[in-house]
Amino acid sequence: MPEGIPFDVPQAEIRRYHNMAAFEFILHKYDIDDQVLQNIGKIIHDIEINYWGRKRYEESKKINKMFQKIMDSSNSTEECLERGLTLFDSLYSTIIKSPFETGEGKKD
User: Fold this and answer.
1) What percent of the chain has pLDDT over 90?
2) Which long-range contacts (CB under 8 A, 24 or more apart) does 60-63 make?
3) Could you tell me the residue ranges of all domains in the chain?
4) DSSP readout, the chain?
5) Which pLDDT score, from 0 to 100, does residue 108 have?
6) 66-88 pLDDT, tens digit each
7) Taking each helix axis from N to C terminus, what angle separates 35-48 and 22-29, rounded to the nearest 10 degrees?
8) How far apart are CA 56 and CA 14, in angstroms?
9) pLDDT tens, position by position, 26-44
10) pLDDT for 104
């Protein structure tokens, strides 16, 4: 197996933590302040960290279903990755640039 950077496994630096998704950790570690990526991070947090709880953002359930459909219908890891990256590109172009509001109408 070729060497690489461990990702989202217990011994990896870049992984999910009890209160932070791996995506959010990357944004924090590299001081990325792009508001669209911050908003995508909130959705990922809602899906990944708030797994069992009530979702804070309306977009979370819809996007989670889209990713699940990609995973369920892809014939290979490569196809799943390619389709997932395409979805992320689409999200980046459609997610609003202002801070998200929670489902309760409060700014996050």
Assistant:
1) 61
2) 63/91
3) 22-94
4) ------BSSTT-SBS-BTTB-HHHHHHHHTT---HHHHHHHHHHHHHHTSSSSPPSSHHHHHHHHHHHHHHHH-SSHHHHHHHHHHHHHHHHHHS-SSPPB-TTS-B-
5) 55
6) 999 999 999 999 999 999 999 99
7) 150
8) 24
9) 999 999 999 999 999 999 9
10) 47
User: Which two tokens mark 80?
Assistant: 């799943």
Structure tokens at 19: 């209160």
Whether the full predicted model's pTM is greater than 0.85, yes or no, is no
Q: Residue 85 phi/psi, 5° resolution?
A: -65, -35
Report the alpha-carbon distance of residue 49 to residue 76 in Å, rounded: 26
Q: Distance between CA atoms of 94 and 97, rounded to whole angstroms?
A: 9
How many CB atoms sit inside 10 A of residue 61's CB? 13
